[in-house]
TrEMBL record, chain B:
<dbReference type="InterPro" id="IPR008614">
    <property type="entry name" value="FIBP"/>
</dbReference>
<protein>
    <submittedName>
        <fullName>FGF1 intracellular binding protein</fullName>
    </submittedName>
</protein>
<dbReference type="GO" id="GO:0016020">
    <property type="term" value="C:membrane"/>
</dbReference>
<dbReference type="GO" id="GO:0016607">
    <property type="term" value="C:nuclear speck"/>
</dbReference>
<dbReference type="Pfam" id="PF05427">
    <property type="entry name" value="FIBP"/>
</dbReference>
<dbReference type="GO" id="GO:0005634">
    <property type="term" value="C:nucleus"/>
</dbReference>
<dbReference type="GO" id="GO:0017134">
    <property type="term" value="F:fibroblast growth factor binding"/>
</dbReference>
Length: 1032, 358
């Protein structure tokens, strides 16, 4: 299906000086799409050229429209020698291909050069006419909407959630082709940028086709990643969740209460008030399985883990049959799918029935050259293997589905660790297929599944548990069994009831490894992995106990491989779920109880730990109601027992090795100090300092226990690279170094953002990489959101109230806070007197009041005034006493050209799927950008810090410019997926690759929304907030 | 373990006003960290010195990147790399262009040339303003000067339009540019008591009334930076007020009659009238010479302010005298240059009153 792409080059500004002689530039523009190129005229001798070109028209297939980026190159014309490139702009035109998104891309784009960075801006207008609207969905996948957001986007309703879609494409990396030896770094970087842009276009189109096959119309939770495999090639892979989405009617979308797409669904019944529960118990079973297979390429699959709470089962007396029926249905719905996986982390109410626990699988592979890029079978097979494993783990937990699913890789030389993880769950079939099968069942189910605790109930049969576990009756409903601890990779469900606030919990770990080659290396790594998994798990558990909490959400474990070490970093948000039992404390036991001083030391430590727990409970406001002991399932405390690590010696490839990470059944969590390692563990437990008062942090979308967000947000990326002193590197010193690095980074963040207190760091996302032998790189992206300390909204227990609250809280409080970046602190403005003066001036001088109101900034006022002055009265020689020399009377008449008054519109960026205090009214399309920056004058650019600081700032700027050009004013679900930094200080060189993505949206402040909706219904909201300056 | 790389980039660029001030004041990172530690910030926030060091470095790096844009403030508004709220942009610009009183008094009226720039280390030593800060302030003066030097129209207006400064600051810069262009001597010891405010006030009045732009219809060469040559030439005509003995006596008697009993220093005034009048009129008639223009302030102090001060005239008496002195000229029938006289005297009177203090 062909389409017509139309491009107009309007103007440039702030171009660099290309001709030293004249200090000016003779710029022209090449516009390229596919194999067609157009050129503008040369605009001589200007740094602000006005090309005002005709419309360049490309007639192309829509397949190309999806794959190809529009490539705009700005050049300096040179009569005698080759024209010099100033820089390029790549524009992804995908957002123009579906009807509801953007209709035009128009605005100022930074002109980017991989060697010099941003060099001025260019104003471009892009439009697409698709022929034959009716049938365009068939041949290509134009029209399938993509969302990075891992929940159902705010102005849509999920009709059906179809399930997992995945695809990968491979190619040779241009950087490693023979031609790279003879071309310039710039050419090489550009080839790479272009290739990746092409590959992601192709990938997106292919995924789109799969979605259409499934009869869906959108991909939610779209996650695309690059594997830079070096010599062996370049892999671009993506996963997502296919859905059929319905746009909510605009009137509904404008109701502030309608924050979730669940409005028209039946609300779940009230949560039962917390009933009296049983005593605390404890255990943490881990189901592991491993197989090692030697395929044609070397591959080791390492023990994989299932972190759970416990299995349940007997499902309550009356609930039983329905549950069985439900299971049957879900099963049938899901079994049609190869992989019943969902990349979503938040769900429509009622979707998630039970949560089993975290399932994860890792596999170590040796990379070899991809022989045939068109048949990326090996890579496909690798991932299929891992997914199969995940699926079987989920089954073992009595779950048919995996939610909050994600995949990642870590590559070092030719070794690659593939990882996948998710949360085993039982889902409500209602969303999974069409039809009205459920009817009465649905109703009965909802009666039986109290909303606040249902998801905690164990999904499988108590009598047939896959591992030793300990269960109690649910503390909320008292009817069903729950585990004592629950680990998940998803966000806290909206209807979950928690006590107190949550907090960020991290487990950090390093393991030295001998340098080795190929298979020996892979074997060494795969041998280390289970121990790392075990320790990460233990650390998480200890820290969770120390916080007095009983569940982890958003768990993400990253294992990074380097030349001589492995790093593990797990982040999650701890909370206290009311449905789960109160966690026991941590008990320390010494190995040699006879030694008196040792005993004393132990008891001292014990006291410190107890104090910390008490302090944490206070800090996070965890004060569960005292519950008289009951005799439901109270376990008999067993003697403390160090967890066992069982490994069979079997060489057989198919044999499953049990790695039992359970800590047995015990009343309190016991840490046995039997060697220095354990001592270290205890110490490191206590070294984690809580954030300063007024700060909270979490890695989930929203902070459990805080719901009164105000509108100020600050997204940031922070990068640190640390060099290890390589003398006496031991696991302990390494651990300590790594721990310090992360803790110091957090401390710096708290310090930097102190002006926002009280605030919460949300979606804190740590990434670790090991770029070189002694270098550790930690990258953090997060958003700080302010909240109102004094107007804490009463936590209510009903879901109905809760959901309406979530939407309206900000609404009520918004007016007391700066609504916009630009209007804030006018009162306390250093020039407020000047401003008043200006205002009085301008009111005298005939600037219409409306115009003055529109000046939202002081600078604009100045400009306005400057213009007014020129229109003002004639300067006279009146005696000065009669009028101060400042008043307008003394400025003479002059008609100066009005200065262009286009201040840059504000574009917000956030890793979250929402913007506090605002309503997303439109999704404009996915932003997926890849940049390379290289320098050969590292010192001159301020060293590595200066280089990367500038580059990240530039990446933000380019993302904002693209969003603004689409007519948007924010990016949500923003993520920096890759930040690969390499340096060679001796050669004064550095290179960095960054890949970012997110959803471009238009949002409207809820306060504005009300005004708008009373005046004019829908259309007028857009200009009020659009950040994009449309060229005139 | 050392941090090789340590950066923080916000979607909205974080600006710490305190660190900005330290940076503007020319402190090195380590000095700035030291000063911040002494401010007690560690105790307030519970941060460590390492955190402070990293934070300061980060801000310095940001300011360094912003500096290029601050040289042409409109660029700061249009650039896309740093997302800064307009109020913050205004603050960045205003503070960057702000200058120290001590520094400006040293440079005011000097040629903004390389020679003066070489002298900055002496100025730095004398004023206690760091050399780095001196350089920034000097470069700001020079940059503003270069941009508006040849420009038509209101000087302060031009500065405000091209540098987006606040009203107050733009007017201060207009004074700096005006002084630099006319090279008024302000460094003499007897002028030391004058503040920048005094001089800026005078500059403003002169720009208002003594430049070609002051005459509404002379649009063609509407320049604010130079004094009106024609006007200076005409001022020679005033000489008749002191050269013609009858006119001088008549003038004196008019003033004395009007002020009798109203001045506490009447006798001194009467005795000094001719000297003072000669002083003021001679200053006017000599302004065609560049040298005398440069010495305008020295002359005003020597010829008028010092004599009055030595006789301990109260400020109010000076005001009454000057009012009467300029008004009485209108009653001198033989004198034809009333408009000229007013253009000269109105400005001069205000300047003298402003300058008349200890």
């Amino acid at each position: 299906m062909p389409g017509k792409l139309k491009v107009k080059i309007v103007a440039g500004r702030h171009l660099p000086v290309m001709d030293r002689a004249s200090d000016l530039t003779d710029a022209f523009v090449e516009v390229k799409f596919g194999n067609t190129t157009f050129k503008t005229d040369v605009y001589h001798k200007s740094l602000n050229p006005q090309w005002n070109s005709e419309w360049f028209k490309f007639e192309v297939d829509d397949e190309d429209l999806q794959d190809e980026p529009l490539q705009i190159t700005v050049l300096d014309h040179d009569t005698y020698s080759a024209n010099d490139a100033i820089g390029k702009v790549y524009i992804d035109i995908d957002p123009l291909l579906y009807s509801e998104a953007a209709t035009v891309i128009s605005g100022w784009f930074p002109i980017y050069d991989t060697i010099h960075g941003i060099r001025g801006e260019i104003n471009v207008v892009v439009k697409v006419d698709l022929f034959n609207d009716l049938n365009r969905f068939r041949q290509s996948s134009c029209g399938v909407k993509f969302f990075c957001t891992t929940s159902i986007p705010k102005c849509y309703r999920a009709v059906i959630i179809h399930g997992f879609v995945e695809e990968l494409v491979v190619n040779e990396d241009p950087e490693y082709q023979w031609i790279d030896r003879i071309r310039t770094p710039r050419a090489s970087n550009e080839a790479r940028q272009r290739l990746i842009s092409l590959m992601s276009g192709e990938l997106q189109r292919k995924i789109g086709l799969k979605v259409l096959e499934m009869r869906g119309n959108a991909v939610v939770g779209y996650l695309q990643c690059f594997d830079l495999e070096g010599e062996s090639g370049l892999v671009v892979r993506a996963i997502g969740t296919a859905c059929t989405l319905d746009k909510l009617s605009s009137t509904a979308a404008f109701l502030p209460a309608c924050n979730s797409p669940s409005k028209e669904m039946k609300e779940s019944p009230l949560v039962h008030p917390p009933s009296h529960g049983c005593r605390s118990t404890h255990n943490s079973p881990i189901h592991t399985a491993t197989g090692s297979r030697l395929t044609q390429n070397f591959s080791v699959s390492v023990p994989t883990l299932i972190y759970t709470g416990m299995g349940s089962g007997s499902a309550g007396k009356e609930g039983g049959p329905f549950k069985a029926l439900l299971r049957q249905q879900t099963q049938s719905a899901l079994e049609q799918r190869e992989f019943p996986f969902f990349t979503l982390t938040a769900f429509p109410p009622g979707f998630l029935v039970h949560v089993g626990g975290v399932v994860s699988a890792r596999s170590v592979k040796l990379l070899d050259r991809i022989h045939n890029p068109d048949e990326p079978e090996t890579r496909d097979a690798w991932w299929a293997e891992i997914r199969q494993e995940i699926k079987s783990h989920a089954k073992a937990l009595g779950c048919h589905a995996v939610v909050g699913y994600s995949e990642s890789t870590s590559i070092c030389e030719e070794v690659c660790i593939l990882s996948a993880s998710g949360t085993a769950a039982v889902l409500n079939p209602r969303f999974l297929q069409d039809g009205t099968v459920e009817g009465c069942l649905e109703q009965r189910l909802e009666e039986n599944l109290p909303a606040g605790c249902g998801f905690c109930h164990i999904p499988y049969d108590e009598l047939n548990m896959p591992f030793p576990a300990h269960l109690t009756y649910c503390y909320s409903c008292r009817k069903q069994k729950v585990p004592d601890v629950l680990f998940t990779t998803i966000d806290l469900p909206a209807d979950a009831t928690v006590i107190g606030k949550g907090c960020l919990i991290q487990a950090r770990l390093c393991r030295l490894k001998k340098k080795a080659q190929a298979e020996a290396n892979a074997t060494a790594i795969s041998n280390l992995l289970p121990f790392m998994e075990y320790e990460v798990h233990t650390q998480l558990m200890n820290k969770l106990k120390l916080k007095g909490m009983n569940a982890l959400f958003g768990l993400r474990i990253q294992i990074t491989v380097g030349e001589n070490m492995l790093m593990g970093l797990a982040s999650a948000t701890g909370v206290y779920l009311t449905a789960l039992p109160t966690p026991g404390g941590i008990q320390i036991a010494g190995k040699t109880p006879n030694d008196g001083s040792y005993e004393q030391h132990i008891s001292h430590m014990q006291k410190k730990i107890n104090d910390t727990i008490a302090k944490n409970k206070e800090l996070y406001e965890i004060n569960p109601p005292e519950i008289p002991e009951e005799i439901i399932g109270s376990p008999i405390p067993e003697p403390r027992q160090r967890s066992r690590l069982l490994r069979s010696q079997s060489e057989s490839s198919d044999e499953v090795i049990e790695l039992d990470l359970s800590h047995g059944k015990k009343d309190a969590f016991v840490l046995e100090i039997d060697d220095t390692d354990a001592m270290e563990d205890v110490h490191s437990l206590l070294t984690d300092v809580p954030p300063p008062s007024g700060f909270y942090s979490c890695n989930t979308e929203i902070m459990p226990g805080i719901n009164n967000w105000t509108s100020e947000i600050q997204m940031f990326t922070s990068v640190r690279v640390s060099r290890l002193s390589n003398i006496n590197l031991t696991n302990q010193t390494l651990n300590k170094n790594f721990n310090d690095l992360c803790e110091n980074l957090l401390k710096s963040l708290y310090f930097k953002l102190r002006s926002m207190i009280p605030c919460c760091l949300c979606h804190v996302n740590f990434t670790v990489s090991l770029p070189e032998d002694e270098l550790i790189q930690v990258t953090v992206t997060a958003v700080a959101i302010t909240f109102d300390k004094h107007q804490a909204v009463q936590t209510t227990k009903t879901q109905v109230e809760k959901s309406s609250q979530r939407a309206s809280i900000d609404n009520e409080e918004l007016l007391q806070f700066p609504l916009e970046l630009c209007t804030d602190t006018l009162a306390s403005h250093p020039f407020s007197s000047a401003k008043e003066h200006l205002e009085s001036t301008s009111s005298n001088s005939g600037i219409p009041a409306a115009q003055r109101d529109r000046c939202n900034s002081w600078i604009e006022l100045i400009k306005l005034k400057a213009q007014t002055i020129r229109r003002g009265s004639i300067k006279t020689t009146m005696p000065v006493e009669k009028a101060s020399p400042l008043t307008e009377g003394h400025f003479r008449q002059r008609s100066a050209p009005a200065c262009a008054n286009s201040t840059v519109g504000v574009v917000k960026m956030t890793p979250l799927s929402f913007i506090p205090g605002a309503k997303i009214t439109k999704y404009l399309g996915i932003i997926n950008m890849f940049f390379i920056r290289e320098t050969t004058s590292l010192r001159e650019e301020g060293g590595v810090s200066g280089f990367l600081h500038a580059f990240i700032a530039e990446v933000f700027a380019m993302v904002r410019a693209h969003v603004a050009a689409l007519g948007g004013n924010a990016v949500v679900s923003y993520i920096m997926k890759q930040c690969v930094f390499m340096e060679n200080p001796n050669k004064n060189q550095a290179q960095c690759l960054i890949n970012v993505s997110g959803d471009a949206v238009i949002f409207v402040r809820e306060s504005e929304l009300e005004i708008i909706s009373t005046q004019q219904p829908i259309a007028s909201c857009q200009p009020a907030c659009s950040g994009g300056e449309i060229a005139t | 373990m050392t941090n090789e790389l340590d950066i923080f980039v916000g979607n909205t660029t974080l600006i710490d006003e305190d660190v900005y001030r330290l940076w503007l004041d020319g402190y090195s990172v380590s000095d700035a960290v030291g000063l911040r530690v002494r401010s007690g910030i560690l105790e307030q926030t519970g941060a460590t010195a390492g955190v402070l060091q990293s934070d300061t470095m980060d801000h310095y790096r940001t300011f360094h990147m912003l500096e290029r844009l601050l040289h042409t403030p409109p660029k700061l508004l249009h650039q896309l790399v740093f997302q800064i709220p307009p109020s913050r942009q205004a603050l960045l610009i205003e503070r960057y262009y702000a200058f120290d009183e001590a520094f400006v008094r040293e440079v005011l009226g000097k040629k903004l040339s390389k020679g003066t720039k070489k002298d900055l280390d002496n100025i730095s030593a004398k004023t206690g303003v760091t050399l780095k800060s001196c350089r920034r302030q000097f470069d700001n003066f020079k940059r503003v000067f270069k941009v508006v030097e040849e420009m038509r129209g209101s000087l302060a207006g031009n500065i405000q339009q091209h540098f987006l400064l606040s009203d107050r600051l733009a007017r201060d810069y207009a004074a700096v540019v005006f002084f630099a262009n006319n090279r008024f001597e302000t460094g003499k010891k007897k002028l030391q008591y004058l503040t920048f405010g005094d001089l800026a006030f005078c500059a403003e009045l002169m720009i208002q009334n003594w430049t070609p732009g002051a005459v509404a219809d002379s649009q063609l060469d509407d320049m604010d930076v130079d004094l009106d040559k024609e006007f200076l030439q005409d001022l020679k005509e005033l000489k008749v007020l002191v050269a013609d003995k009858d006119l001088l006596d008549l003038h004196k008697s008019l003033v004395c009659t009007a002020l009798r009993g109203k001045l506490s220093v009447f006798a001194e005034m009467e005795a000094n009238f001719k000297n003072l009048s000669r002083g003021l009129v001679n200053i006017a008639s000599k302004l065609t010479h560049t040298k005398d223009v440069r010495d305008l302030f020295v002359d005003l102090v020597e010829k008028f302010i010092e004599p009055c001060r030595s006789d301990r005239w109260p400020l109010n008496d000076v005001r009454l005298f000057l009012n009467q002195y300029s008004a009485s000229v209108h009653s001198l029938d033989g004198f034809r240059h009333q408009t000229l006289w007013d253009r000269y005297m109105v400005t001069l009177r205000s300047c003298l009153l402003r300058m008349y203090h200890d």
